[in-house]
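Q: For a teaching session next week I want to show students how multiple molecules come together into a single three-dimensional assembly. I've collected the sequence lines for a complex. Could you give me the predicted structure tokens for the whole thing so I can convert them for display?
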Amino acid sequence: MRLGKGTVLAGLGLVVSLAAGFRAGLQGGYRTDRTAMALPDQEQGAAQPAQGPPSEEVIPFKWDRIESTNYQQFVENLRTVGCPEPTIRAVVRAELERYYAPRFAKIAQSDNYANLPAQNRERRAKRDELANEIDSVMYDQLGIQRPVRSASPLFTLDEEGRITQALTQFPRIRTEPTDSDGMARAESNRLARVQFLSQYFTPEQMLYYKLDREGDGLRIERLLQGMQPTKDEFLGVAKVVESKDTALVNGAFKADVAEALQSALSSDRFALLQLLQRPEYQRIFSFARQYQLPDDATAALVSLRRNAFTQDEAAYRQKVLAVLTQPQMAAGYLNDRTIHPHRSQ
Amino acid sequence: MTKAIVALGVVALGLSTGFVAGRARRGSASSPLNVRRQIASTNSALQEARTGHKHWRWSSIESEDMEQYIANLRAMGCPEQTIADIIRGKVYAMYQERVNRIFNPLARYWSTAEEIRAVDEKVRAIRKERDQLLAGAGMEGVQGVGSSGIASEKQRYIDEALTRYPKQVLGLDATAEERQAALEARKARVAYLSQVLTPDELLTYRVTQDGNSGGIAFLLRPVHPTDEEFRAVFSALDGENLSVTNGFLAPAVEAKLEQALGDERYAEYQAQHTPENAAVNMFGYLHHLTDSQIQQLKAVRASRSSMDMGKYRQAVSDIFQNDKLVNTYFSSIGTVTLDQGEGQ
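A: Of course. Below is the structure for the complete assembly, covering every listed component.
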């Protein structure tokens, strides 16, 4: 039987196309990437892997099918293949931070030693501006989900989700204490966050939230400085002074604050707290902040100072040195005229 | 022409038959989960047709075993930088979860120093494990965002120096040996970096990352040093003990400062460190006042004897325009015996 040229060509075409079609079907059949199709050897070595669930099917797949020079498209591609949101966030954030790195570096290089606090404020503001820009690209433009803190002893994952929601709707505003408009805006947002969360949180959770996330913890810490409060004392005081202005007036608590504190502390402890507002103890706390002393060292200095004039000079000096360990720091402390007005060197 | 049409028809038939056969074979291996996913994904059919990702899922390469995860990503041709970003992101999140589980941020307000240290130790151990895991995978730990002021291509030398001679956190109870070890490690870092950074870059590194620039800046803040002055003083004083006794540094350190500043500027420095100026400067620093506000406060205070208390308070109030801050000023300045008894 003789076959015509056309029949041979058609038969050959059928075999080749059957094979090509079969392979395309096996590989998902939607590939239009010519380069990848032309490099079967590389593809055979690809995507061995699969530590994933046994029900997952592994098909050779190349990164270049996800890659895009367009971020929107890149994120869309990652989502399409089921890339977890935290992974998308990590990749995009890292890339954006690299992209912005020269601008961050430029901020660090702008020296203004003539006025370091102003320089630090300026740098912080510029860094915040860039960080906000990155956040805006990620969360507003690309629609990437904002990160939610993982569960902690204070809040569950769901509660952390609510906190993230509150912060997204009513963001924190960083401002200078002398900028009254900025302070008012910051306070308004803070109140809105608290109001929003109080719909979902119990009063106890709200207290934890305000202490941990709204700066109340530091305020109460300052208020009880030198007391080494127990957990009950700390939380009790936090509860009663929650919405009160705890600033001192001429070294004394305002009447309503004093009354609230009395209700939360025993009479001995309240008396100690009042004593600790005196200039010499406040100066000890300022010294402790300056040298970042731990609380127990600060409390030991307070205790020593309370009995400073009932023991001899040498013993007192020795005990102070034992607390501070560094002779020069101890000398500076002992020579402080506010802490020790009657001692002189 | 007819032959060509026939040939094309046969090719088309072959392609479609082969395609269907291939699909049928894949279909037989599909799990119900895959089928459900396919159904669920029909809504985004247009997107899938464009990207061609219909059947491949990220979960097929993701692994809790980082080495395996990296190998899987490499096998699919993922760029090394992206692999590093993915792994670093996953490892950080994983370990942060562990930290969050054991760390109650409020506990520090009522815990003893020992209890705080114990939790800190646990957190440090978790972070060390994290950094070791990343180092084992050939990735560095924390990556800044170019805040060092050093060209990014040289940043890796700094990372290397920090890996070889790590910074040590010293508590107040650190022994003399521990302090010495920390100092030696710092010297080794600086010596290592001096081989690869220019002197100016090295000074920048020390100023921004590995020196007591904060303490020196705090000391010099009231005299507003120029960049040149700051660098000169930093070179002279970095690593020295900056404790102040009766308003003075240790004599040898004070002498170095005087030499670095010169007579005239040193005199200005001394004037700014008298107790009353120091107290106002400190207040200004703590409350982020501008230089102008600090200068005005000093001027008002200097002319206090010529005005009554009401006027004095009003003058201070005019500077702040913030009643709360005025109250804080009078009560905190009172604690250093400057304006005691002059508040409300």
